[in-house]
Amino acid sequence: MRLPRPSPALVIASFALLLAAEGVSFAAVKAATAVNIADPTTPSRLAHVDANGALATSATVPGGVTVALPRLPFRVSSYAFADGGASYWQAPTNATLAITEIRFSDNANGPASVFLYQYGAASASDCAFAGGSRSLGYYFVPANDTVVETMQTPLVLKRLAGAPYYCLVAFASDPGNTGTGLDFTVGGYVPSGSFTPAEPAAAVPGQPPHR
Fold first, then answer.
1. How is residue 109 annotated by DSSP?
2. How many angstroms separate the Cα of 120 from the Cα of each of 19, 168, 204?
3. Comparing C-alpha atoms, which of 73, 72, 97 is closest to residue 155?
């Protein structure tokens, strides 16, 4: 048996019903905006972007979540004398520092070798050696040249075991014994604690002070 051909009125009515149904679905999706993110199957499940741009939710998030460290940037310059003695980048600190750049500039006529250390310190007032030490690297700086180390993965400095503070110490030497030094710059950000650039004070026992 052949079915009768639908009338034009029935076709128009069916098309209008389809548009109405799609409109309801579209409105439900639009309820999840750029600020609120909704589960399309359970609208009560919401997450939102807060005023600081962070994604927030009241639900338990399964799996591993990495918390972004706050980026409080710094870039501080000092001077490392190329006489084999200790030169201090800054006064002692107990903040956690994430180093992303270390730069040495040699303005002398001879090359310089630099050994960089983290030293434990007993107080915030001087860099007298107390606690442990940590070797951070060796740098060879050609005459009248600059060496820059940039780090995709930051070098993180924290308090060493047995010392409430720490200092960044450079031991530079010039084989030509020209008696000059190097500009010494460190940059990065502060994940935790308070770091205020300040002039270093005392020296490691047996070593000349930062001048």
1. S
2. 73, 9, 10
3. 97
Q: How far apart are CA 170 and CA 84, in angstroms?
A: 9
Nearest CA-CA partner of 28 in 18, 16, 41: 41
Q: What is the pLDDT of residues 92-122, one digit of tens each?
A: 999 999 999 999 998 777 788 999 999 999 9
Domains and CATH numbers, the chain: 8-57 (no CATH), 73-192 (2.60.120)
- The span from the CA of 192 to the CA of 156, in Å, is 11
> pTM for this one?
0.62
Q: E strands along 2-144, which residues?
A: 36-38, 46-49, 55-57, 73-81, 83-88, 96-106, 112-121, 129-141
